[in-house]
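User: C-alpha cells for this complex, please. No commentary.
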Amino acid sequence: MDDQYIFVEHDKPFRYEDGETIVTRGSAWSAPGCHLGCGVLIRTDKQGNLIDVEGDPDNPFNQGRLCVRCIATKEAVQSPYRLQYPMKRDKAERGNPDAWQEISWDEAYDTIIEEFNNVKENYGAEAVTFWEGTGRDISAWISRLAWSFGSPNFLPSLNGLACYGPRVYGCFTLSGSFWVGDYSQQFADRYDNPQWKCPEVILVWGNNPVVANSDGAFGHWATDCMKRGSKLIVVDSRCTWLAAKAEVWLQVRPGTDAAVALAMANVMIEEDLYDKEFVELWCTGLDEYSANAANYAPEDVAEYAWVDADDIRAAARMYAAADGGVIQWGVVLDQKDEAIPSCQAVAALMMITGNIDNPGGMIKPPEVLMYLNGWGAELLPEEQAAKKLGPNKYPFYNAGVAVAAADVVIEAIETDQPYPIKAAWIQTTNLLACMGVDPERTLEAFKKLDFIVGVDPYMNPTLQALADIMLPVCMFPERSGIRCGDGCQRIETINKAVDPGNTKSDMQINLELGKRFNPEGWPWDTVEEMFSNIYGSTGLTFEEAQAAAPGYMPFEYYKYKSGKLRPDGSPGFNTPSGRLELWSGMMASFGLDPLPIYKEPSVSPYSTPELYKDFPLVLTTGARRWNTFHAENRQTPHLRAMHSEPAVQMHPDTAASLGVSEGEWVWLEGPKGTTGDVARAKRVVEITPIIDPRVVSTDHGWWHPEGDPKKLYDVMDLNINKLMPWGCGPSGIGANYKSLLCRIYKVEERNSHV
Ligand SMILES: Nc1nc2c(c(=O)[nH]1)N[C@H]1C(S)=C(S)[C@@H](COP(=O)(O)OP(=O)(O)OC[C@H]3O[C@@H](n4cnc5c(=O)[nH]c(N)nc54)[C@H](O)[C@@H]3O)O[C@H]1N2
Ligand SMILES: Nc1nc2c(c(=O)[nH]1)N[C@H]1C(S)=C(S)[C@@H](COP(=O)(O)OP(=O)(O)OC[C@H]3O[C@@H](n4cnc5c(=O)[nH]c(N)nc54)[C@H](O)[C@@H]3O)O[C@H]1N2
Ligand SMILES: [Mo]
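Assistant:
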C-alpha cells in the first residue's frame, strides 16, 4: 500500500461484532443519495437485517454528524415502494401501470442488448441516449456504458448543465482550475492541522450549505468555522439560518447576482481594496475588468437588485479585508439564462483578493481520482465523439464539455435532426418530475422513442410514463462502492452490510451489460476488481482501501508558486498566459463575452414589464429542504411528515394582499419564458417573513408516490418546471430555473378541471 496516503487510525476492523449486532464502518452514498459520502456505521443483526445507520465519529469528514435522510435509511431500504425485480412492458402499454410483468435479469439483459444493438445497426450507436441525474456515485458507470457502447450522447437531463457545470466552466475560463472553500477538509486532522487557517470571512452566495450540503461540502463545516471565529456575508433572496447570523445580508432580487458581484468589484477597485501585489504578479486583464466593473456603481445596482448600496459596500470591504476568505457558492449562480458570466463575476472576487490556493481561502483539492467528468472517454471512437449533440448548437461544448446538451438532444428526438434518436437509458434521474424543463414537451418527445430502459430503486413518474424495461437497483447498505471526486477528495469506501435480494447495484448492472456490449472496455470480473482498477494510481486494492479508509493525500497550498497547477511544471495557473485571466481569452475564442456582463433574466420586472403587470411576483424555485433530495424521499414516512406537500413561501403582506392563508391550496401560474404560453402548478401557502414581499419561493421535484400511477402520481399538477423557459443562452451553459414571474390564486372547483 502506498505510504504517501494518510489514513485515519482505527482500533477496530471495518466490520466488527458489537453484542448481538454487527457494525460495518464505511460511507453513505446513493441510493438514497446526495453529494457527500458521509462516514457511517451501519448496524445490522446477525441475519443481516438493517437496524440503523449512525454517523461515524472517527471519520474526519462529518465527525459523527448525519442529516435526517441518512438517519431514515432503514425506512428507505425497507420501503414497500421499492422495486424488487426486473420488469417489462409492451411499448404499446407505456403509461399503463397494470401492464408490467416480472422477468428475470437474463431476460432483461437479453432484451436490452437486442434492442440497443438493433438501433445501433440501423441508426448508429448515437441513436441510443444515456441520461443521468445529479451525479450521485453513478455517473462514472453511465458514461463508461454509453461511450463503450459507442454513443456520444451521455448527458444529465438538465438544460444548460445548470448545476455545477457553470461554476466549473466559470472558474476554468478564468483560471484553468476549479476552486472550493477551504474548511480544512483535505487534512485528516482537520481543524487541528497547523497548516490550515480558519477563514476570517465566509461569503455564502446563493447557497444554503447547512441544508443542501452540496457539491461535496458538508454544511456543518461552515458552523464549525463560525465557532472558530469566521464571520459571514450572505447573499440570498431569503433570510436563511446563516443569513440571520451574518454581518451583512444582501437580500437580492433573484437573478441579479452577477450585477451585485460586479458592484462589489467596483467598490474594491474604486477604494483600492483588492490585493494589488497578487493581481500584479498573477492576474492579467485588470484594466478591462476594471473598466467593466465601472459600469456597476453600487447605487445603480442597488436599485434593480433591490438591495442597499451601503450593504454592497460593506460586503465588498469585509470580504476584501479578510485574511482568508471562502466563497461558498451554490447552484443559484448556475441557474441563469446564461450562467458563465454570473459564475465568473463571483469567481473574479476570489481572484482579485488573492483568495486562491491559500489557507482559509479557496483551494484545489488534490486529485485522488478525477473520473467525474466522464470515465471511459478513451473507449469512444473519434468519429462517434464528433457526433455528440451539443457542439452543433453551442460551440462552447467543444471546450472540453464531456456530455451532450439536453435541449439539443430533445430537439433531435422531436425533429430527427441532425439525426434520429431511437432509444434511451435512464439511470438515476426522474427527469419529468424534477430535472428537465417543460415536462409536457419532454414527455411527448420521449414517447416517440422505440425503446426506453429505467434503472432506479423506485418507480417514479418518468419511468411509469415511459419505461419498457425497469431494472431495480439496490441502496448503499446493500452494496460496495468508492467515493472520490468533488469538493473533498479522499479514499473512502461504501461497504455492503445488507443482502440486496434480487436487486443489483448500478455498478454491477453497468459492468454486466458493458461486458456484453464491449468486453475490452470492461475487463473486470467483479465490481470490486473494477474499483481496484480505479484506485490503481493509489496502489491500493479495493479490499485494502475498505480496511484502511478514509485516506487523505498530502495537501499543500500555493501550488501556483511551486508549479504544481500546470502540466508543464512551471509556476502559474493552468491558463495560456499562466495567470488568472480576468479578461478571458478562452471565452473570446468561442465568440463569447470575455468579461462578465449582467443581463436581466429572460422574464423579469425590467426585461418584460408587460408580463410583470399580469404576473406581479418574482419567482425563485427549488430552495432545498432538509427532508428530501430533489424528487426523492417522498415515499419515506418520517421524511414526508417533515414537509408533506409542495409549498410556496410568501411574505405575510403578500398573503394578505392575495387573501390567502397558511396551508391553503393555490395555483401558481406563470409565463413559459417569452413564448406567450402560460402554465401552472398547485401549491400550499407557507407564510414566512424570511422573504421579500415582491418575491415568492417554491419547491421543485413534486409528485405523490401514493397517488394514482395512471395520472403519473399527479406530477403534471404539481411540477413547477412547466414554467421554466426552454433552452439556454449562447454558450449553452446555464438555464433559468430561479428567476421567473408568476401570479397566485386560490384553487377552487371552478378553476381546477385540468
Ligand atoms: N425548478 C427547479 N428544478 C430543478 C432544480 C431547481 O432548483 N429548481 N434543481 C435542479 C438540479 S440542481 C438538479 S441536480 C436536478 C436533479 O434531478 P434528478 O437527479 O433527476 O433528481 P430526482 O428527481 O430526485 O431523480 C433521481 C432519481 O434517481 C433515483 N435514484 C436515487 N439514487 C439512485 C441510485 O443510487 N441509483 C439509481 N439508479 N437511481 C437512484 C431516485 O429514486 C429518483 O427516481 O433537479 C433540477 N431541477
Ligand atoms: N436536502 C437537500 N440537499 C440537496 C439537494 C436537495 O434536493 N435536498 N440537492 C442537491 C443539489 S443537486 C444541488 S445542486 C444543491 C443546491 O443547493 P444550493 O446551492 O444551496 O441551492 P438552493 O437550495 O437551490 O438555493 C440556495 C439559496 O439560494 C437562495 N436563492 C434563490 N434564488 C436566488 C437568487 O437568484 N440569488 C441568490 N443570491 N439567492 C437565491 C434560496 O433562498 C436558497 O436559500 O443541493 C444539493 N443538496
Ligand atoms: Mo444539482
